[in-house]
Amino acid sequence: MDLQNQMKKAVAEAAVNEVTSNMIVGLGSGSTAAIMIKTLANKIKTGELKEIRGVPTSFQSEVLALELGIPLIDLVSVDQIDLAIDGADEVNPAYQLIKGGGACHVREKLVASRANKLLIVVDQTKLVKNLNEDFPLPVEVIPSAWKQVKDVIEDMDAQCKLRMAEKKAGPVVTDEGNLILDVLFNGGIK
Q1: Given the residues 48, 67, 90, 108, the one annotated as active site
Q2: What kind of fold does domain 137-185 have according to CATH?
Q3: Which of 14, 21, 106, 132 is at a distance of 20 to 30 A from 178, taking alpha carbons?
Q4: What's residue 190's pLDDT?
Q5: Which parts of the chain are coiled coil (predicted)?
Q6: H helices within 17-104, ranges in order?
Q7: In this predicted model, what pLDDT tens digit does every residue of 103-143 receive, in sequence order?
Q8: SS3 for 120?
Q9: Which of 90, 111, 102, 79 is nearest to 175 (CA)?
Q10: Shortest CA distance to 153 belongs to which of 136, 166, 170, 165?
Q11: What CATH number matches the domain at 3-126, 3.30.1660.10, 3.40.50.1360, 3.20.20.80, 3.40.50.720?
């Protein structure tokens, strides 16, 4: 296992160590969150954790949790989540971050907003001095407004592109049925 995957595994395991029985847990999205979900499922399977219910932040995390036997509840069914564990695309020294590279950040933010505690799990490749110098800021927009929003963003001294899918013709469509604009502000976000 390479160093990056070792780091992902270590932070995922550390995050799951914060989970106690009878918790409602927000299940994040992305590669590190997937390791966390697998680790959580193993602790449930071995009986180390009991009465855990997960709230997925994406279709990806929902499918994985179901395949691994983690009981799920819908976001609309909970008023609060004990602990949410999610990844990020970039984190700066002030602990500000960019999320949404996986095109599911609306639900990620909804889960985070209901969480009593939010843990962000990242490996060293996600740590940056300044946000948005290399990784674009994803902006989720309703399909009928993408061009108008793109024009407004470009007027703010930024490069803005509609994210196109790689394995289908056309744009990426989020879990909520929206589109993603990838934005790079000149000089990044400081």
Answers
A1: 108
A2: Alpha-Beta Plaits (3.30.70)
A3: 132
A4: 78
A5: none
A6: 31-45, 59-68
A7: 998 999 999 999 999 999 999 999 999 999 999 999 999 99
A8: strand
A9: 102
A10: 136
A11: 3.40.50.1360
Residue 101 above 80 pLDDT? yes
Q: Using CA atoms in the order 61, 119, 136, 133, what is the torsion angle rounded to 10 degrees?
A: -150
Residue 146's H or E segment, with its range, is: helix 146-154
pLDDT score at 130 = 95
Q: What is the CA radius of gyration of the chain?
A: 17
Q: Distance between CA atoms of 33 and 119, rounded to whole angstroms? A: 11
Active site residue 48: no
**Integer Cα distance of 67 and 61 in angstroms:** 10
